[in-house]
Amino acid sequence: MSTENLASRDALKKMTDLVDDIKFAMLLTALDTQPISAIPMTTKKVDEAGNIWFLSGLNSEHNANIVRSSNVQLLYSDPSDMEFISIYGEASVVTDKSILEELYNKKDDAWFTGVDDPNLTALKITPKEAYYWDTKENKYISLFKMGISAITGDNKDVGEKGKLKF
């Protein structure tokens, strides 16, 4: 696996591509406590500045954790395509009505009573640093290459990994 560390625009593009592909993340809050608090979240969008957006309940434990400490970790994983990214960043709770309206859709009715629900907030995650693993191919091709490599002793490039700096 080759290492490709990226910065600025290249890092933003790589992160956006992976987040858009995977969509679901584990949001880790209260990073200074044990056990770390983790909850699954559905990504609503990655904006042009690279901020990652979610909808969240005002009275949720993770919102309370973010108010106490804004440092968060997002873990995205798609084992079927062998794509993974870990994003460290700073979170903020947003209540701006126009943002809530932009992010909200009918599927969110499972958790909220509409865009006017007083418990509805958005979470804005501003990435600071990330690390990714991406095979560039599906898992079967990657596993095949790993098997050939084990048999022949030749190192096969099964993808790339690297640090992303924003």
How would you portray this structure in words?
The chain contains four helices and ten strands; from the N terminus they run ββαββββαββαβαβ. It is α+β, with helices and mostly antiparallel strands and 166 residues long. Strands 1, 2, 3, 4, 5, 6, 7, 8, 9 and 10 form a ten-stranded mixed beta sheet that branches. Strand 5 and strand 6 form a beta hairpin. The longest helix is centred in the first third of the chain and has 15 residues, at 8-22. The radius of gyration is 18 Å and the shape is globular.
Task: Provide a quick synopsis of the model.
The protein has 166 residues and is α+β, with helices and mostly antiparallel strands.
- Helix-and-strand structural type: alpha+beta
Query: What Rg do the Cα atoms give?
Result: 18 Å
Beta strand count: 10
Q: Average pLDDT, to the nearest integer?
A: 88
Give the secondary structure arrangement, pairings included.
Blueprint (H helix, E strand, L loop, with lengths): L1 E2 L2 E2 H15 L1 E6 L7 E6 L2 E2 L5 E6 L3 H8 L2 E8 L4 E12 L2 H7 L16 E15 L4 H14 L7 E6 L1
Parallel strand pairs: 1-10, 2-10
Antiparallel strand pairs: 3-4, 3-7, 5-6, 6-9, 7-8, 8-9, 9-10
Defining traits:
166 residues; alpha+beta; 10-stranded mixed sheet; 4 helices; 10 strands
